TrEMBL record:
Residues 135-297 form the JmjC domain. GO terms for molecular function: histone H4R3 demethylase activity; metal ion binding; P-TEFb complex binding. Keywords: Chromatin regulator, Dioxygenase, Iron, Metal-binding, Nucleus, Oxidoreductase, Receptor, Transcription, Transcription regulation. The keyword Cytoplasm does not apply. This is Phosphatidylserine receptor. InterPro entries: JmjC_dom, JMJD6_ArgDemeth/LysHydrox. It is found in: Nucleus.
Length: 373
């Protein structure tokens, strides 16, 4: 038995009860259904698209970030080295001998690619690597650049080693995916697709979870595999799309999707996909993220606040009173300069300098923006 097969056996044994692995439902034979997922009818693509070169940052912030509305961005990753290096051949060439996290285990990329080619699993193992800057994988960091629209990230004021996990390199064969979920701590996310196609389904935060499952499917546990949800529940949601305020689309290579905080979303890969995603805290989701961070990551939150205390004690003090932290300054494309954030005006007129701090920290403590640009 090769170590690779041995590893697979271990992963399957570990997940036997949890994940309905294997090919019980023979989805690998459902070619027609897979084709429909890859090429849906036009109505099943109702997300808005904007080319980032046609608008300034204000437009995106006002229309989508502030309005908490998903959008598909084009023109945001055209010049990334990733577009050459993250093909199947590229991954083999540049990362074949590097290890990546697959179902909690470390697997060589070359073995994972072999697995992707051969698997008949209903819900194949997904490669989800969060430590992009470690163990020889650090080339990944130079393969992409955080799009300008998402550069300023308030968690970026603390070292990467301390902040909650925030970026993932994601590889998955056809039939893999992420079942319906909300992202951690109320953060928003962008997800850039380099290879293949991703079918996305999204619901606003105020839609209760029960609504995404037809009543006859009592066991929601079965649906922590994306493929089962997309096959059994998604058609029901299509019928109730209006009431559920459902947004759906098929993302193509080179497109970057924006997922506002707390929106429910599920992803299905109808073919082999390679993507990178980052979660972030901005002016628009800050209040929510801070409240959740305080509740769910109390110790980290203290440290986060300390950094802010250090930068601007008066403001941090005020922030404690108000139970939210002010944001500092934002780079404004149209004004070509730094501007204070509105919410701050009542707290302090001085320079908060959060971003300066993030930008000047050491490489091990660099912000998401500086580490990947
Ligand atoms: O499978 C995907 O690409 C979606 C990833 C995602 O939603 C997440 O990491 O939270
Ligand atoms: Fe997500």
């Amino acid at each position: 038995m090769t170590p690779y097969k041995h590893l697979l056996t271990r992963i399957y044994a570990k997940n036997k009860n949890k994940h309905n692995r294997g090919h019980k439902r023979k989805f690998y034979k459902k070619k027609k259904w897979m084709k429909k997922m890859l090429k849906p009818v036009a109505e099943e693509n109702n997300i808005e698209y904007i080319n980032i070169n046609d608008h300034d940052g204000h437009y995106f912030r006002k229309m989508f970030e502030k309005a908490e509305k998903p959008v598909m961005l084009t023109g945001a990753c055209d010049d990334w080295p990733a577009s050459k290096k993250w093909s199947k051949d590229g991954l083999m060439k540049y990362y074949g001998d590097k290890m990546f996290k697959v179902a909690g285990e470390q697997m060589y990329m070359r073995d994972y690619l072999k697995y992707c080619k051969r698997t008949r699993d209903d819900s194949p193992l997904y490669l989800f690597e969060e430590a992009l800057d470690q163990a020889g994988r650090d080339g990944l960091i130079d393969d992409y650049t955080v799009p300008e629209l998402f550069k300023y990230d308030y968690y970026g004021a603390v070292p990467n080693s301390v902040r909650p996990p925030f970026r993932w390199f994601i590889v998955g064969p056809e039939r893999s995916g992420s079942t319906i979920h909300q992202d951690p701590l109320g953060t928003s996310a962008w997800n850039a697709l380099i290879e293949g196609h991703k079918k996305w389904v999204m619901f606003p935060a105020h839609i209760p979870r029960e609504k995404f499952y037809p009543k006859k499917y009592k066991s929601k546990d079965a649906y922590h595999e994306a493929i089962y949800w997309f096959h059994d529940c998604y058609p029901y949601c299509v019928k109730h799309a209006k009431e559920l305020e459902m947004i759906e689309c098929v993302q193509k290579p080179g497109e970057v999707i924006f997922v506002p905080g707390d929106w429910w979303h599920g992803v299905f890969n109808p073919d082999f996909t390679v993507a990178v995603t980052q979660n972030f805290v901005s002016k628009y989701n800050f209040k929510r993220v801070f409240a959740r961070t305080k509740r769910e990551r109390a110790r980290f939150c203290q440290r986060w606040k300390k950094v802010l205390d250090y930068v601007e004690p008066d403001v941090a003090l005020k922030a404690n009173e108000l139970d939210h932290i002010p944001y500092g300054r934002r780079w404004s494309e149209s004004d070509s300069g730094w501007t204070d954030i509105d919410a701050l005006s009542t707290l302090s007129t001085s320079d908060i300098g959060l971003y300066d701090l993030a930008a000047s920290s050491s490489s091990s403590s660099s912000s998401s923006s500086s580490s990947s640009s």
